[in-house]
Specification:
Length: 154
């Protein structure tokens, strides 16, 4: 029996791949790592901004109602914990869209101020534009103009 000798290859170059394929693979991996790092950075920045907003809320509540550390610990933080647990429960039982909408409604109720989602107007405008585009496509590219049928009468 003859044993086939292994062909020697260059280190780092898989068999069957040319140099441009290797470079493309490396570029793909590099872009994936950069995207993951950017996603992590965005999440971290979002968390930092949220934390600062929470600090601002706590300080504002203390200033508005003259609440000191004792009442914050006794009244505010337990209420905050209960509301957080209720939100988590709604997310698990229904979904996050439902839970956040209920939270928005409750915030509106207790504040007496109409509360909208960030960029709500832009989302509504984008949805309307998308629906106009779909409608135009369904009429063969002619927006709001149905195609008139022609008849050949003699």
């Amino acid at each position: 029996m003859s044993v086939k000798k292994k062909k020697k290859c260059h280190p780092g170059k898989p068999n069957g791949m040319n140099y441009s394929q290797i470079l493309a693979k490396q570029a793909f991996i590099r872009k994936a790592v950069e995207k993951a790092a950017a996603d992590t950075t965005v999440q971290l920045q979002s968390d930092i901004h949220t934390q600062r907003a929470m600090w601002l809320m706590v300080v504002s509540i203390a200033d508005a109602f003259g609440i000191g550390p004792t009442r914050m610990k006794r009244d505010f933080f337990p209420a905050f914990q209960r509301n957080t647990e209720e939100l988590i429960r709604m997310e698990q039982e229904a979904d996050s869209e439902y839970a956040y909408e209920k939270l928005r409604q409750r915030a509106e109720q207790v504040s007496g101020v109409q509360i909208e989602y960030l960029y709500e107007h832009e989302m509504i405008a984008a949805k309307a534009a998308y629906e106009r585009k779909l409608k135009a496509a369904s009429y063969g590219g002619f927006e709001n103009k149905p195609v008139k049928e022609e008849t050949n009468e003699t």
